[in-house]
Amino acid sequence: MNMEYCEGKSHLTMNLNEILARKELRLYFQPMLNLNSGKINEVEALFHWEHPEKGVISSFELFALAEETGAIIQIGEWLMRKACEQNKLWQKMGLPSFPIAVCLSACQLTQPNFVERVQRILEETQLSPEYLELEITESIMMDAHIVLPILRELKRIGVQISLDDFGMGYCSLYYLKEFPIDKIKISRSFVCNCTTDKKDATLIKAIIAMAHQLSLEVAAKGIESKDQLLFLQQHLCNIGEGAFFSDPLLPNEFYESFYNIERIIREEGISPVLCRQKQLEEELENARQELRDTVSLQQGMIFKFVKENGKFIHTLCYGELFYRIGIIPEKLIGKELFDFFPKDVAEKKLQYYERAWAGEENVKYEGFQNGIWYLTSLRPVKQGEKIIEVICSSIDITERKKMEETLREREQKYRLIAENMQDLIAVVNTNGIILYASPSYETVLGFPPNVYEGNAPTLLVHPDDVSKIHSQYEHMALTKSPGYVEFRYQHAQNGWVYVESLGTPVLNGHGEVEHFVVVARDISKRKKVEELMRKSEKLSVVGQLAAGVAHEIRNPLTSIKGFVQLLRQEVNHSFYMDIIISEINRLESIVGEFLTLAKNQPPKRERLDLRILLQQVVSLFDTKSLYKNVEIIQEYDEGLPFIYCDGNQMKQVFMNIIKNAIEAMPNGGIIEIQISCHNFHSVRLTFIDQGVGISAERIKHIGEPYFSTKEKGTGLGLMISHKIVQEHGGTIHIESQVNKGTKVEVMLPIKQPSPVENSI
Ligand code: ADP
Ligand code: MG
To answer: Per the UniProt record, which EC number(s) apply here (predicted)?
Structure first.
C-alpha cells in the first residue's frame, strides 16, 4: 500500500507493510486521570512514525495523511487491534481495568461492516467491550444521518464513545444531545490558556456546565501546570491528561509508572474531599435552579411571608400567574400587602394571613385581579411550636369561575320559568323522594312546596289513585321512557284537584336513570267540561224527547178543547166548562212555549213586545207544584215601546235569570219583575229576588263559564245571557247582597242596533 506524504513541496511515498516491517510505527499511551480521585481513568492509544529521514511524525499528522490516501482504514484497524491487545495484556498483568481510547476517522466508521470488524477485534483480543473507547471528532457529525445509526450500533455492543477535540470543529449542539456519547474531551487549545485568558476560562466553565447538564463526562486535554489542574478541578472537570501528569509512554513505561502517576493529583491537586464538596455544591445549585425554574414555569404562583414588627413581609414570590395578574414577583419581596394592593383588597387578604399565622391549617381565599380569578391556599410552617413562615400557593380558577357563572345564570333562568308557571314541576330521585317541588304547588294545591319535598310522590294523593302513581314510576324506571298518569291531589281547602302528570326519566352518562322530572297540570276544568258535555248531551236528548212529547200532547189538546167548547153550549154547567177551557188554554201555551224553545232557529230580529215575551216565560214557571212558595210579581210601565230582538233568544235570557232567582230561594219568596223606560233610547228590565245573594268576591266571576255554586249547575246560564244581550246592544248588571237578595238589571236599546254592533 502506498501513501503520499505531503509536506511542503516534497513527496513522500510510504508502504504500510514496509513501515510495519521496519517497525517504524510505534505505539504510545497517554494516561488520563480522574481529577477527583487521581486514579487513572483511561488511556489514550497514540502512535508515532519514526521516519528514517523526516524524524518523528505524530499520529495526528499521520492520520491526516492516511485519511487522504485511504490507508487510514488499515492503520486504524491495526491501531485498534494493538490497543486492545495491550489493554488486555495490562489487565492480565494485574493493573486495574480501564478503557483504552482509540481515535476513529470518518472513512473508517462508514466502511461496510465496521461494527462487525470492531466486534471481531474484541473477540480476538478477548477484551470486554466496555474497555474500548472510540473517539470521534466533530467533523464526523456532519454526516449525522449515516453516522448516527452506526454509533448507536456500537453503543449497543457496549463500546464507549467520546467526542474528541471538542470546541475545534463544527459541532451542532443538537448533535450533542442526539448522539450516543459518553464524554467530551476539551481541546488542548482551550486548556493551555485557561488560567491566563479569561475568555478561555469562561468557555471551559461553560462547556463543563453544559456537559454536566447533559449528563456527559468532561475530559480536559493538555494540562501542563498545577494552576491548570486546580482550575479544572475547581470547575469540576471530571478527567484530565497532559504533560503535567505524564508524557505518552511506551507500554512497559506505563506499567512501571502507573502508581506514581496516580499519586500526582493526591499530592498536587485539591483533595478529593474538597472536590466532592465542590461537586455537592454544584449539585445543590443545580437542584435549586431546577426548583426555581419549575416554580416560575408553573402555571400558578407560590409565595411566602413572615411576620416582622407586626407586618407580613413577603420573602419569596415565583410563578407565571404573578405576571398574569399584573404583578412582577420580584417587586413583592420585602413588601407587605398594603404596598401593592388597594387598602380594601389588602385588608381582606390580611384576615387570611392572620389566620394562617395563628396556625390555622388550610386557610383558603379567592382573589380577582386583572381579569383573573385565583385560589390561594396558605400553609403555616412550624419550627417546634413557633410559626416561622407561611407558604402560599395559588392556582388560576378563572375557567372554573366562568363555568360556575354560566351555570348559575342558566339555573336562574330555569328557576324563573319554574317559579312563574302554573304547571307543577317536581324532581324525584330514584329512591322515590321528591327533591324539588315548584312554587306552583302552593298556588294550585294550597300546600307549600316544602310539604312535598323529602316525601314520596304519593303524598296527599287520593287513596284510590296511589297505585296508578306507583305503576307510573315502575314503568319509567323499567323502560327509561316517559310515563303518563291522571290522578287527584288533595287541595288544602277545596277537596280534590284533578291533575295529569307526565314524568320523564333523566339519564346519566352511563344510561342509568339519575332522577325523574315530573310535570303535572291541574285538569279540573277540563274534567268538568267533559262531565258537562256528557250532561248536556243527556239534556239535549231529554229536550228532544220533551219536544216530541209536547207535540203529541198538543194534538189531543186541540181536539179536547174543541169538543169542550161544543159541550158548553149544550150542557148547563158552563161555569165548570169555563174553568176547563182556561186550564186547557194554559196547557196549550206551556206546550207551545216548549216547542218554540226546543226549536233550533237561526237568530232573527223582529219588533216585539217585551211584556208578551216575559209573560210567556213566566207562564212556564207559574206551575206552583214545581216551585213551591215562589211568587212572581210583574210591574210594567205604561206605553212601553216595542224593541227589535230575537224573541226566542230574549226568552232564553229571561228564563235563565228567573231560574237563578228561584234557585236562590229554596224556601220560597217573591220575585219582582219590572219593565220601565230608562230613557228615550233604552228599556230597563229588573229582576229582584230575596235569595241567598252573591258575595262581592264571587260576583266578579259571574258570567265566566262553569262558574257555578250549584251542585248541578253549569255556570253557562249567565254567560249565554250576557252574550245574547250584548249582541242586542244591551248590558246586564248584577247587584247583590249576601242573604238579602239579588237584583239583575238588563238594559236593551229601543232602536235596532246597527249591523256592525250586531255582528259579534
Ligand atoms: P248556574 O245557574 O248553572 O250555576 P249561572 O250562570 O246561571 O249558572 O249562574 C252562575 C252562578 O251565579 C250561580 O251558580 C250562582 O252562584 C250565581 N247566581 C246567579 N244568579 C243568582 C241569584 N239570583 N242569586 C244568587 N246567586 C246567583
Ligand atoms: Mg243558572
So the answer is: 2.7.13.3
pTM of the model: 0.42
* Residue 664 Cβ contacting ligand 1 at under 6 Å: yes
Task: With beta carbons less than 8 A apart as the criterion, state whether 241 and 31 touch.
Answer: yes
641 lines ligand 1 (CB under 6 A): no
Distance CA 709, CA 701 (A): 11
Query: Could you give the CA distance from residue 682 to residue 745 in angstroms, rounded to a whole number?
Result: 12
Closest by CA to 207, choosing from 154, 253, 166, is 166
What's the CA-to-centroid distance between 61 and ligand 1, angstroms?
Answer: 130
Q: Which domains does the chain have, with CATH numbers?
A: 3-270 (3.20.20.450), 280-401 (3.30.450.20), 421-522 (3.30.450.20), 523-600 (1.10.287.130), 601-759 (3.30.565.10)
For residue 579, how many C-alpha atoms fall within 13 Å in the half-sphere facing its CB? 3
Decide: 99 in ligand 1 pocket, CB within 6 A: no
Does the CB atom of residue 713 touch ligand 1 within 6 A? yes
Residue 320 contacts residue 297 (beta carbons within 8 Å): yes
What's the pLDDT tens digit per position in 189-233?
Answer: 889 988 888 888 998 998 998 888 888 999 999 999 999 999 999
Lowest mean pLDDT of 79-83, 625-629, 666-670, 741-745, name the range: 625-629
Residues 99 and 131: beta-carbon distance below 8 Å: yes
707 lines ligand 1 (CB under 6 A): yes
Ligand 1 atom with least separation from CA of 718: 6
User: In angstroms, what is the span from residue 657 Cα to ligand 1's centroid?
Assistant: 8
Question: How many CB atoms neighbour CB 606 within 10 A?
Answer: 10
Nearest CA to ligand 1 atom 19: 660
Q: Strands 239-240, 25-34: parallel, antiparallel or unpaired by DSSP?
A: antiparallel
